[in-house]
Amino acid sequence: IRVADDRSFWYVRAHHIALDGYAGLMSVLDVVNRYNAELAGDEYAPKAGASLADLVADDIKYREGTRRAADRAHWVDRVADLPERVTLAQQSAAATLSPRNLVAGAQMSVAAQDQLDRVATELNTSAAVLLTAGFSAYLARMAGTDDVVLSLPVTGRATAKIKNAAGMLANMLPIRARDVSRLTMRDLI
C-alpha cells in the first residue's frame, strides 16, 4: 500500500486453513529474498518447494502407508490416561464476535534473552524447552496439580521439499509434565 512516493506498507493476509505459521514465515522470507536480490541487481532463484498437488499426494501416501498406523498407535497410548484440563481461568469466556481483544505482553530484554540462551546452552537444550518447562511448572503450581498437559504446535513437514512449501501442515501435540512439584527444574526440562 503506497502512502507516499517514498513510503509503502506491505500488507499480507492468509487464512490459517491455507497457511500455518511456518509457511507464513517461509513466504515472508521468500519476499525478503526477492526484494534483496532486486536491490542488489541479482537474479533471484527461489528454492524448489512442493506444490499443493505434491502436498496432497504426500498426505495420501502417509494415510495409505504403514507409518500412519504406527503413529496412531503411539499417540493413542500416549493420550490414554491424560488428566482433566487445567486452566488458570476462573470462568469460561462467552463466545463473541467482538473486533476487540485484550492482548497483554511485553518484550523480553536483551539481557534476559542472553541469560535464557546461556542457561539453555548449559543444559544442552533450547530456549523453547526452557520456556515450556517453566510454563508447565507455573501452570501446575497455580492450578494446584502435579500433572499438566500443554498442546503445542509442531510442524508436519518431513522432507526438504515440503519444508519449502506453503500450506497448512501443523499438528497439535500433547506435551505432558507429571509429578511437577517433585521435580527439580533440570529434571522437568
Secondary-structure element pattern, one letter each: EEHHHHHEHEH
**Uncertain regions spanning at least 5 consecutive residues:** none
The largest beta-sheet arranges its strands as 1-2
- Total strand segments: 4
Q: Give the rounded overall mean pLDDT.
A: 89
Tell me which oligomeric state these chains represent.
Answer: single chain
Helical run tally:
7
What's the helical proportion of residues?
40-55%
Biggest sheet record: 2 strands, antiparallel
Rg from alpha-carbon coordinates: 21 Å
Structural class: mainly alpha
Shape label: globular
Describe this structure in words.
This protein is mainly alpha-helical and 189 residues long. It has seven helices and four strands, in the order E-E-H-H-H-H-H-E-H-E-H. The protein has helices at 21-40, 52-64, 66-79, 110-122, 127-143, 160-163, 185-188; strands at 2-4, 7-8, 148-155, 170-177. The strands form two sheets. A two-stranded antiparallel sheet has the order 1-2. Strand 1 (2-4) and strand 2 form a beta hairpin. It is globular. The mean pLDDT is 89.
Structure keywords:
single chain, 189 residues, mainly alpha, two-stranded antiparallel ribbon, two-stranded antiparallel sheet, 7 helices
Task: Report a brief summary of the structure.
Helices cover 45% and strands 11% of the residues. With 189 residues, it is mainly α. The chain is globular.
List the helices and strands and how they pair.
Layout: E1 2-4, E2 7-8, H1 21-40, H2 52-64, H3 66-79, H4 110-122, H5 127-143, E3 148-155, H6 160-163, E4 170-177, H7 185-188
Antiparallel strand pairs: 1-2, 3-4
